[in-house]
Amino acid sequence: MLISSPQDKASRDKATQDRAAPDSGLVPPAIEMVDVELSLGEGASRVHILRGVSLTVGRGEAIGLVGPSGSGKSTLLMTAAGLERADSGAVRIAGEDITRLSEDRLAEFRGRRIGIVFQAFHLIPTMTALENVAVPLELAGEADAFTRASEELKAVGLGARLDHYPGQLSGGEQQRVAIARALAPHPAILVADEPTGNLDEETGEDIIRLLFTLKRDRGTTLLLVTHDLELAERCDRIVRLKNGHIVEERAARAVA
């Protein structure tokens, strides 16, 4: 008879925990926030933003975060992406509690696992579209950075604009570059904070179609902040915030 050591048992228990998941029974969910509290500011100006927020997002799920200005939806998104640190509670990405990571480890983890698209494009004006996508990959140690960047720009319809600078691109094209940059590391999670806020209605619709097409084709989990309820209805589920609390969760109407 084989006798297992305590270390062997601990290893098996850890492996079992890693496989356990609320959403599938096999693997942990893409995002799990448990009783998250977050305040910003100092002293008398300190403001409580998130108040005991708990949210589970399944792998490949699209969540529309809605609510009035100041409700905490953008802060929730940034906390889920590791750009803000919770004061208390847990934020788990694929089962790993990112609130326990050092700043360097968190930055590395975020760079590999999470793509981020903002309302502002945040492109470097002195770099071409290709360089804006490739340089972050190079800094992360990817040997095929420029090849991958070229492929991602072609995937968002900018194959003919690789050598153009941001100032030579329209707003919609700049946001496509930002999306290509976010998706180039092949993240499992994409977070987008009002990604069409700086675009006209027609261009914004093009960007949203692109986001949902890429999400579907790649099986990416999408967390989308929007003031547009019709846009939120195109997600799988809608989460409504008010005064730092989640006040509603429901299935979306899956608008085409």
Tell me how many strands there are.
10
Helix-and-strand structural type? alpha/beta
Major β-sheet annotation: 6 strands, mixed
User: What is the N-to-C succession of helices and strands?
Assistant: HEEEHEEHEHHHEHEHEE
Topology:
Layout: H1 6-19, E1 31-40, E2 47-57, E3 62-66, H2 73-80, E4 88-93, E5 96-97, H3 103-113, E6 114-117, H4 129-139, H5 145-155, H6 171-183, E7 189-193, H7 201-218, E8 221-225, H8 229-232, E9 237-242, E10 245-251
Parallel strand pairs: 3-8, 3-9, 6-7, 7-8
Antiparallel strand pairs: 1-2, 1-4, 4-5, 9-10
Helix pairs in contact: 4-5, 4-6, 5-6, 6-7
Write a short abstract of this structure.
With 256 residues, the protein is α/β, with parallel strands linked by helices. Helices cover 35% and strands 24% of the residues. The chain has one domain: 3-Layer(aba) Sandwich (Rossmann fold).
What tags apply to this protein structure?
six-stranded mixed β-sheet, 256 residues, disordered N terminus, four-stranded antiparallel β-sheet, alpha/beta, Rossmann fold, 10 strands, 35% helix
Structure description:
It is a single chain. The protein is of the alpha/beta class and 256 residues long. It has a single domain (27-249), classed as P-loop containing nucleotide triphosphate hydrolases (Rossmann fold), CATH 3.40.50. 35% of the residues lie in helices and 24% in strands. It has helices at 6-19, 73-80, 103-113, 129-139, 145-155, 171-183, 201-218, 229-232; strands at 31-40, 47-57, 62-66, 88-93, 96-97, 114-117, 189-193, 221-225, 237-242, 245-251. The strands form 2 sheets. A 6-stranded mixed β-sheet has the order 6-7-8-3-9-10. β7 (189-193), α7 and β8 (221-225) form a beta-alpha-beta unit. The longest helix is centred in the last third of the chain and has 18 residues, at 201-218.
